[in-house]
Amino acid sequence: MAQLIFEDIGHGVSCIDSQYIRSGLASCYLIEQNDHAAFIDVGTNYTVPLLLELLEEKNISIENVDYVIPTHVHLDHAGGAGSMMQHAPNAQLIIHPRGARHMINPSRLQAGASAVYGEDEFKKHYGDLIAIDEQRVTQADDGFSINFQGRELKFIDTPGHAKHHFCIIDEDSNGIFTGDTFGVAYPELTVNEQPFIFPPSSPVDFNPQDWLNSIDKIMAAGCNRAYLTHFNKVDNLQPLAKTLRERVILFAKFAVQSPNAQELKSQIQRYFIEEVLKTGCQLSAEEITDVLSLDIDLITQGLMVWVEKTA
Ligand SMILES: [Zn+2]
């Protein structure tokens, strides 16, 4: 079984390695307040035992899990939601209105992903998705908020990576849980505490204009830290937002100009290697490609779908 790896990052927030595919790829967050718990993103079915172990370690009873909050319904964020809800009898699921039906009846989500990965690979990475009783599902529109043990969590609609994506503002920590909307920054590529941040466009909802608007919306919230699912917290958001905006625009340009998927993929790969090496990162080109290989594939696919849609 995977090992529990987590870090307490202040204000009752812990970042947990979901152990999805490899360590350091995806995380989820526990917010602890008055001996109660809320989870933001839960990884896959295979992450849930780690989250239960963490609750035990922190002496939080499973009855005191009040909320399970996937930022969107991609499986590295929401794949374990049904299982977590089964374990936590008093929890309410909070989800974007466009994602709710997939949590209540995950059969289409599972069939879709199985078709992409193949049945065996799907089971290996995600296990069977578990349906959640409609009564336990709350849909969060833009501006929705909850009072979690006296701590306000506010939801903003943030499309661009996915149409079913929201971010969650936590005033207590002056932080915002951004799922994939404020980009991805892997620990392996962080040099002198400077994260290497980029937009993980993925099939099928990539939309550059929406994404730029969502980045503006995140910045308008005025938080001084962002909790990325991939991976952990980042501070000093202004320069990161600028880089992220530039890369959303650049990737869209790559996609429009590229003759085919293979060419696009090589271009993105070359771009990443060049940009990472500029930061002084000591990894070889091959190692950089390894860290980013899943993203290079998904970004290429996401951009191709978008280009075909807009053509
Ligand atoms: Zn995603």
What is the gist of this entry?
The protein is of the alpha/beta class and 311 residues long. It has helices spanning 48-57, 75-78, 81-87, 100-104, 107-117, 119-126, 208-220, 237-257, 261-278, 285-310; strands spanning 6-8, 13-17, 27-33, 36-40, 65-69, 92-95, 137-139, 145-148, 151-157, 166-170, 175-179, 225-228, 232-235. The chain has ten helices and 13 strands.
Features:
single chain; 311 residues; alpha/beta; Metallo-beta-lactamase, Chain A; seven-stranded mixed β-sheet; 10 helices; 13 strands; 20% strand
Biggest sheet: strands side by side, in what order? Answer: 1-2-3-4-5-6-7
Given helix and strand content, the structural type is alpha/beta
Distance between the amino and carboxyl termini? 47 Å
- Indicate how many domains the architecture comprises: 1
List unreliable stretches of 5+ residues.
Answer: none
Whole-number mean pLDDT: 96
What percentage of the residues does DSSP assign to strands (E)?
15-25%
Q: Can you tell me the CATH class?
A: Alpha Beta
CATH superfamily: Ribonuclease Z/Hydroxyacylglutathione hydrolase-like
Reported CATH architecture: 4-Layer Sandwich
The total count of helices amounts to 10
The total count of strands amounts to 13
| CATH fold node name | Metallo-beta-lactamase, Chain A
Ligands (ions, cofactors included): zinc ion
Shape label: globular
- Compute the gyration radius: what is it? 18 Å
